[in-house]
Design a protein that fits this description.
The structure holds 2 protein chains of 2 kinds. Chain A has 2 helices and 10 strands. Chain A is mostly beta strands. Chain A has a single domain, classed as Immunoglobulin-like (Sandwich), CATH 2.60.40.1890. Chain B contains 5 helices and 10 strands; from the N terminus they run αββββαβαβαββββα. In chain B, α3 links the parallel β5 and β6. In chain B, α2 packs across α5.
Chain lengths: 157, 215
Amino acid sequence: MRALTLKLMLLACLCTGEVWAAGPSLAVGDAWIREAPPGAAVLAGYLRLDNRGDKALVIEAIRSQDFERIELHRTVVEEGVARMLPVDRLEIPPRGSVSLEPGGMHLMLINPVRPLHQDDRVAFSVELADNACQRFEAVVKRVSGDESLQHHQHHHH
Amino acid sequence: MTSEGQARSRYGIIATIVIVIVALGAGMLTARLLFKPRTDFSELSATVFQQPRAIQPFALLDHHGDAFTADSLSGQWTFVFFGYTHCPDVCPTTLSVLNSVATRLADAPDATRFVFVTVDPERDTPEVLNRYVSYFNGEFVGVTGESAAIGELTRQLGIMYMRVEDQGDPASYLVDHTASILLFNPEGHFQALFSPPLDADTIASEFLTIAGAFR
């Protein structure tokens, strides 16, 4: 536990201050976490990553002090079977964007360190391959079946 | 011919016409009952079995720790989804969809029930399932049990699941699993299958078609 605390403190120091030389190329939008049943060990996070620059951006890691561990996964359904495949490398093309959405790519948020309820805000940081770092906040949302459907249909904002 | 005779013969004709009409009506009604037009399910996105499948006996537990057996499936229509509580994306999405289906079918003529069967009985105890399913809908039933019993039930239903180990952390393994929703008729027989992509409107309206044809 002591080791973990130390690690979290270290991570918190990684993403501070001005990290972009000429303004951020990466913009994070529509970041939200699906509210989960009480005691859930794993939650899902969704967001949109926009690259406003002329160079491809490679996401190295997404971190938050509110979870023990975060992994990036993609849900695929093949012959009726849903599986989650780890995404090792996420590249956002120049002037392009990548969306993490229900039923597709998502952040797998493992072991929340505090209970998360609707409207709670969670701080994250995105670490890029060039050591740049971008902070963002995600809001916890309670989703009904209808809303998750709408989210699918209107994903182009 | 006397006027009395004429009247009698007129009555005779009327009586004959009435008998013919009644007989025709009865015949048509019988024909409708005997040769009930088979509902065409081919337009549905659901797979509907013309011969619903009977289920071999099984012994599992519900989220209160009470017995859940093949008999528990009969008496009303039952939607069944297989998943696990450590599943962050597919299972919560599907259970939310099922909650919307439940809302849409609340006033339907046919009673429905919704059951979530875990494919991860090691982590999903009745207590864990209780917290999990109640979050989505207080009426939902969570089902768990011995791994072997879950295995037997899934095998006869064609449900697949496979544990995927996490190299970094053995406790946080994933489980690949069939993402379809199964529908059991009030006799407890496997009647239809809804495969992804799943949406509440389609499931609710197709259910009404399937249940209507069953009545």
